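re: ur question from earlier - yeah i can do the single chain one, its not a big deal. heres the input i used so u can compare w yours
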Amino acid sequence: MSPVSTVIDIGVLVFREGLECILVLAAITASLVGSRSRYKRPIALGASIGFAATLFTWMFAVRLVNDLSTEISTLALQAATGLLAVIVLLVVMNWFFHRVYWTGWISLHNRKKQTLLRADDDSASSQARLLWGMGLLGFSSLYREGVEVVLFLQSYRLKLGGLPVLYGTFLGLFLAGVVAVLTFVAHRQLPYRRMLVLTGVLLGGVLLVMVGEQAQEMQLAHWLPTTPIPWLAVVLPAWMGLWISVFPTIETLLAQGIAAALVLGSYVVSHRLAAHS
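and the output i got, formated as tokens:
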């Protein structure tokens, strides 16, 4: 893949996961006003620890993948990590899963917050449990998204090295940071749903690119057969393989078609279920 397209793909993914984390944290802290605003501090501290834990998870994952690369071929390891990245991205892109997830995950955090607040009294032990609980809410909100990003980026790191991953991550973190400042510092009401839909559409393009590239890597590792389409090889521009991983083989195009069908199919199913509920 082109390094520029890689940086953009990584930036979109990191921004989208950061946006989801901000949405969860905003939902948790929305009702913490007045005397309860002091509980925002342990949530912020928990989120900060979650960010640090994500960095340690990244270092552990890098070391693990590097150790594995000494035992199996690099091409096979790239194919395996790429397959894991596609699975992670399919989970992220699954509209039905995330309809349930957004409702369940945010509701779970809000229920936990309300339980902690109801148990609040003047005793030191209850205050300690409340502060620990709020910190864990902040930690889990950020660390879950961080683990997804760490797993996803291992494939890119193996193929292109650390610099494109670093640049793409900084791009995504910068965009997420702007949204976080507007949300928590400037207290702006942002159109989160529209932003998530937009980044979801962009991630759909990233998914098709990754699936095409992954299918080609599995062909090179002899995990998949290679069936060329001669007439398509003549008319298909070379830049389409470099930038969007469209290759003139039956297996790569079929894999991209299946991925698109899974995402669109789950979107249709979620809407039908919502209409009947």
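The chain has one domain: 3-276. not sure if urs matches, ping me
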